[in-house]
Amino acid sequence: MINLTLSGLPLSWDGDKKKMLFQNPLQPVVPAVRRLEEMIDVLYRGEEDVKVDEDPGRELYYMYRDLYLPEDKDSFESWGIRYDITVLLPGKIGREYIKTAGHYHPTKPGSDATYPEVYEVLYGQAKYLLQKPYDLKNPRQGLEKVILVEATRGDKVLIPSGFGHVTINSSSDYLIMGNLVAREFSSLYEPMQQMGGAGYFCLSAGVNDETTQFIPNSSYAALPPLIQCSPADHHPFPLKKEISLYQSFLESPQDLSFLV
Question: What distance separates the 2 farthest-apart alpha carbons in the chain?
Answer without folding.
Answer: 53
